[in-house]
Amino acid sequence: MRSTPSPGTLRLLKALLFLIALLPASALILATFGVAGFSLGANPIEELLHNAGKWGLRFLLLTLAITPLRRVTGLNWLIRFRRMLGLFAFFYVSTHFLIYALLDQRLEMGAIVEDIIERPYITLGITALIMLIPLALTSTNAMMRRLGRRWQPLHRLIYPAALLGVWHFWWQVKEDIREPLVYAIILAILLGFRIWWRRNRGQSRAHKE
Amino acid sequence: MRYDSTPRILSSEITDETDYLNRREFLRLAGIAAAGAVASSACQADVSGATTSDGLSRGTDLGKLEKSVLSIDDKPNSFEDITTYNNFYEFGTDKSDPHRNAKDFVTEPWTLTVAGECSKPGTYDFDELMRGSTIEERVYRLRCVEAWSMIVPWAGISMATLLKRFEPNSRANFVKYTTLYDPDQMPTQRRRILDWPYVEGLTIAEAMNPLTIMVVGLYGKVLPNQNGAPMRLMVPWKYGFKSIKSIVRIEFTEKQPLNTWQISAPHEYGFYANVNPEVDHPRWSQARERRIGTGLFAEKIPTLMFNGYAEHVAHLYDGLDLAKNF
């Protein structure tokens, strides 16, 4: 195992990651006000909605990339970033939902309920969001301690949530599936790695985690 | 989200920028003197208002356009909105793609092939076709199947007048329109996401309806490439995908042609595609629409039957089950 960076370096890296993760949100805020050359184009609500959703998916994939990266590189301290990435995924996915509910649907409950029931891609999306809520709520150290051994099984909900999220994106686009396909391939690699690891290398080390 | 490296341009300035036309204009200047002599005889007796004397190639401005009683009074969307938010898959599937990717699209020379059930099939030069045609301004609602809408000041010629020149016969029940197939210029045609070239169809009665026009301009200028230059269909009571762009072929057919989106997803897109708030698309409601240009906090507005053109077109569908024939 390679050496872990000093606590000071880790703190610095974490702060840096935090700022980087805020960049997409900052750009969207600048674009909303038409500042510094950023713009939301002719359909600003759609632009905000799609961007927030895509960043939610990207952060979900980044969160899921931590474990395979640790295994492959041996850089175990990468685990220190996972919670922040996961919470940013939740932040962008929730923002995506809030833009939909507040701006796009203007809180018309009838229309929102109809969408969730009748449009399969929205059903998938809302299900993924609901799965992420308990994960965000139980992400604190105190909750981890309280849940003990039940914490990890609960947090495996991120796997179906990510699957449904990519599926939601896939069903939303018309014909040009390149972008959701890229996400699906990355997700397949990240989940496939876990299965492969369990089968081959995992057995002996499984209890060391 | 978009990032423009260039300084923001006011929409009032954009209309003065006519990059998309320079080539057409330049290539044509040499021919104008010769054309002028012929042009004076091209004005037909039954034509009043704006006529083009030598096609649309003399300049960007279409001159004084005939106003139409079929125009609506609503304030049109900005030129910028209409020319930067386009579904023109040949030039990219993101709505911001066409205005970038269609910049160098060559529309000069342009020919229209006419075929099928008519007395005058053949190949017609675009400028010849436009010569002597009355171009009217038509301010229409445009409703996309994706539940957004705009108000667009099109400039176009009557489709009925155009089609009658080719003398369709009694077997001409439908009109099939085809977009240019040119993968060198239209990047998305190199990928098979749709069955290229793009094809659309109308019944002959729909094609001959007074509302139906062949668009050649926008905001009083020659049509920008990303909006379907040099000529595109406009049937304002149907979802936008019916109004096929950059047309190279018109065929009069006896049988109903298959249109591209119907081939691609028959459960989602039909032949008629009439705007109808009561018949939902499987993936979104059609009851309301987002009017482009109304900002972040605007409410969606109710969608109107036949996009508000029921008085002109509802009779075309008497006895037709519109839920089945979507």
Dominant shape of chain A: globular
How many discrete structural domains of chain A? Answer: 1
CATH superfamily of chain B: Oxidoreductase, molybdopterin-binding domain
Content-based structural category of chain B? alpha+beta
Kindly report the greatest chain-chain contact and the residue count on each side. A-B, 32 and 35 residues
Determine the number of helices of chain B (DSSP H or I, runs of at least 4 residues).
9
- Main sheet overview of chain A: none
Known CATH architecture of chain B: Alpha-Beta Complex
Radius of gyration of chain B: 19 Å
Unreliable stretches of chain A (pLDDT < 50, length at least 5) are none
Write down the oligomeric state: heterodimer
Give a quick account of the main beta sheet of chain B: strands, pairing sense, barrel closure.
7 strands, mixed
Distance between the ends of chain B = 33 Å
Q: Give the end-to-end Cα distance of chain A, rounded to a whole number of Å.
A: 14 Å
Quick overview:
The complex is a heterodimer of chains A (209) and B (326). Chain A has one domain. Chain A has 9 helices and 1 strand, in the order H-E-H-H-H-H-H-H-H-H.
What does this structure look like?
The complex is a heterodimer of chains A (209) and B (326). The longest helix of chain A is centred in the first third of the chain and has 30 residues, at 44-73. Chain A starts with 6 loop residues before the first helix and ends with a helix. Chain A has one domain. By secondary structure, chain A is an all-alpha fold. Chain A is globular. Chain A has helices at residues 7-32, 44-73, 82-104, 109-118, 120-137, 141-147, 151-155, 158-172, 178-205, and one strand spanning 38-39. In chain A, helix 3 packs across helix 5. Chain A contains nine helices and one strand. The model of chain A has no long low-confidence stretch (mean pLDDT 94). Chain B has 326 residues and is of the alpha+beta class. Chain B has one domain (19-140, 155-271): Alpha-Beta Complex (Sulfite Oxidase, Chain A, domain 2). Chain B contains nine helices and 13 strands. Chain B has helices at residues 11-14, 22-39, 79-84, 97-101, 126-130, 159-164, 204-208, 260-264, 310-313, and strands at residues 2-3, 111-116, 122-125, 136-143, 148-158, 174-179, 199-203, 213-218, 221-222, 232-234, 247-253, 288-291, 301-302. In chain B, the strands form two sheets. In chain B, strands 4, 5, 8, 9, 10, 12 and 13 form a seven-stranded mixed sheet that branches. A five-stranded mixed sheet of chain B has the order 3-2-11-6-7. The radius of gyration of chain B is 19 Å and the shape is globular. Mean pLDDT of chain B is 86; it is low at 7-59. At the A-B interface, helix 1, strand 1, helix 2 and helix 4 of A face strand 1 and helix 3 of B.
